[in-house]
Amino acid sequence: MSPSNRVLPSRRWRICRYDRKRIDKLCAIARTDAEVDVPTTLRALLAAPSFHLRLLAGADDSSAVLDEPLLWAHNSDLLDPTPWLQPGGLLLTDGMHLSADSDPSEVDAYVARLVESGTRALGFATGIIHDEVPEVLRAACGGLGMPLLEVADRTPFMSIIRHVSDVLAAEQRERLEWSLDAQRAIARAALRPDGLGAILTELEQRLDCWVALFDSIGNRIDVRTRIAMPTEAEAIVDDAVRAALARGNRSSARVIVGTEAVTVQTVGQRGRIRGALAVGTAAPLDAAGSDLVASVIALASIALEQSRTVETARRQLRSGLLELLLAGVIDVAGRTAQRLGGRLPEAPVRVAVLGAAVEGQSLLDELDLLAGEDAGRVFVAERDVEVVAVVGADDGGVLERVLARHGMPVGFSAPIDWDELPRGLTEARQAAARTRSDQPVVRFERLADEGMFGLLRASGAETIARRLLAPLLALPAAEREMYVRTATVWLAHNGSWDPPSKELGVHRQTLRNRITALEALLDLDLGTFPARTELWSALHLLFPTP
């Protein structure tokens, strides 16, 4: 491996590339005449002539452990040093607690504790207390897979310890320099005309990763980057992003996709989450990488906040356009819409009114995106507490799909021309009033098919009917049903007496008495046509006949 291709991981094993100049600097900082590769590994130490190391057991030249970075080196002759050890290091010992006559079970337990603690290897000095490494230790290390190194020719432990610590310190300084340089590059990128795309591209280059930016409802924002998200990661990342956004506060999550670690972080402040950033890397981010992502998150928050400010202004302009359209100033509204980067749908159009109050920003955000992406097909504006949309007569489906995802009912007007917009708004409101959980989409044509009573119901006439018939509704069920049946049959026969008497199976005088009693109960003069019409309408609204 050439020096320019060597890698230097941090303590959390984050891999980054270094050029030859930086490698030379690191080697110069290490105060030893041993020429070893960086980062420090068992293989590198074994290859250094000045350390006089020899691999005896627990691994061979092809073992991967020889290439794992060493995170520390220290010496101890304690029988159990593991309470003071961290994983990933080289333990050095003179073997004061060992001899050729040591109990194999005790030696096995000693090595097993080192293995369990995550110690990378054991170095045993010869020529000081022991002329050679005890066979019982060789057997224990070989059986438990603990690399055992002989430290010969009275090599000072301190030279090995100092070398490992110096290289680690140099790596930390180099990583800090890398972090500062990357932060400056990100700041410079933010000043470019395409600032948002520039900082994401810079992040890709610095971390050798792919990035994806999502809006507040989980849709991908089209920002030019160098590396595309892997296809197999899209569904998993989409789910992770939507889950993070659903929490509504600042959060971070990590998912594993194949061999990649994907970090998902929300963008924005609690209660004002503007989106999410996904970063896919070959290894988990270390502290420097996480700090760099945090900087990008902050800059992206600013960019998306500015975008939200612009979108709020556009909403207000669209509300103004709607007022112009309702006032009949169609030409001016059309030209203004084109200057805003869109156009109005071609007539005939339908007016749509949402059938419930909008809670939160996610639906409004998605409608804003829809109005922008489908300009010429969908126009959306807020009017007081209403959300009004205008779509092409045959393009209602695109709006319905968005509303269905949010469980939002909607009423549509019949197809109209733009100069009929006030009538269309009235029809859409009437249709929205008839929506139910099992009928979330209602078109005005359906109400027209139901005749005048369909329109009366849509306008809330049932409330008036209940008020008119309140004394009747308060009667016991059997008596109420008798009066409803009597009045319905009598009115169906235009107020005559003999045909309804026969149909009801009662004497005509009995029928007269019932109608007289109903007049008194409801305070109506049923001898007049208006009173009969009012009673007929109220009965039909509350007690419709098949």
UniProtKB/TrEMBL annotation:
Q: What is this protein called?
A: PucR family transcriptional regulator
InterPro entries, sorted: CdaR-like_regulators, PucR_C-HTH_dom, PucR_C-HTH_sf, PucR_dom
Q: Which Pfam families does this entry report, sorted A to Z?
A: HTH_30, PucR
Q: Where is the PucR C-terminal helix-turn-helix domain?
A: 484-540
Coiled coil ranges (UniProt) are: none
Q: Which Gene3D superfamilies does its entry note?
A: PucR C-terminal helix-turn-helix domain (1.10.10.2840)
Where in this chain does the record put each Purine catabolism PurC-like domain? Answer: 45-166
Task: Say which domain of life the source belongs to.
Answer: Bacteria
What organism is recorded for this protein? Labedella gwakjiensis
